[in-house]
Amino acid sequence: MSDTENVVEIGELRLARVKQGYLRMREGCQHKQVELDDTGEVVTCMTCKVQVSAYWALSMLTTYWGDNMLKVKRAQEAAKEERGAVLHLTAAKRVEAAWRSRTMVPGCPHCNRGIFPEDGFGGSLIQRRFETGLRERERADSIAQGLPVVAKLLPRKTVKRTTPANAKPRSKVKPRPLWANAPAWAEWLTGDVKGRWTWHQIEPFEVSNEYQSGSMHEFAGTTLAPADGVGIKEKRPRGETA
């Protein structure tokens, strides 16, 4: 049977303290802050200025290293469990915890009103693709009108928007972006199957019906989705300059 305990491994270095039949006395300064003198090869406590043995310093290093490694391991395990939790389950747990409170209720992130269990939360459903497209279109409209980007509009709710006095009438059919309005750095223009146009600095590639370049890009506007369901990618004409 091994007579060692508190084994600590630091890379290829392996430290193991031999079991003692008595408890080490801990009185006075614990020498937790030490200074290593490379010239004299001595270890001095920075608190009480007493020279301590190399064994003391190595023993202290072994003890505190092992304790901190246990803390790191626990933190990694907790982070792994957190990452493994599904996002919608986490949201459901937060809502349930809020409803269990006697003084608080969960709030709507869009209208900031409270939601009670009897309000039928989760009783109606909407297609994910429709809601995603609705949010993108509302954000694009706000940017095009020079309005601040606000939270998404609630389905089946009529929200009255104020129109600036100098606002131009909007056309039902939006024109596609023109190279004359392109940024100076833009060399490519793409339009995906949702009618979303983007300027790109380098040639983009189509990934899951969207164009991605991994470099500088900028939103160029939205139009009606193409009838044939095929995206568009074109390079800046040679005669066009910013």
Characterise this structure.
- The structure is a single chain.
- Helices cover 26% and strands 20% of the residues.
- The protein has 242 residues and is of the alpha+beta class.
- It has four domains: 4-84, no CATH class; 87-119, no CATH class; 126-156, no CATH class; 179-235, no CATH class.
- The protein has a four-stranded antiparallel beta sheet with strand order 10-7-6-11. It has a three-stranded antiparallel beta sheet with strand order 3-4-5.
- It is elongated.
- The model is unreliable at 20-25 and 153-159 (pLDDT under 50).
Compute the CA-based radius of gyration: 32 Å
Mean pLDDT across residues: 76
Count the strands?
11
Number of domains: 4
- Count of DSSP H/I helices: 3
Q: Strands of the biggest beta sheet: in what spatial order?
A: 10-7-6-11
Summarize the main sheet: 4 strands, antiparallel
Order of helices and strands: EEEEEHHHEEEEEE
Percent of residues in helices: 25-40%
Strand content: 15-25%
- Low-confidence spans: 20-25, 153-159
Structure summary:
This protein has 242 residues and is α+β, with helices and mostly antiparallel strands. Helix content is 26%, strand content 20%.
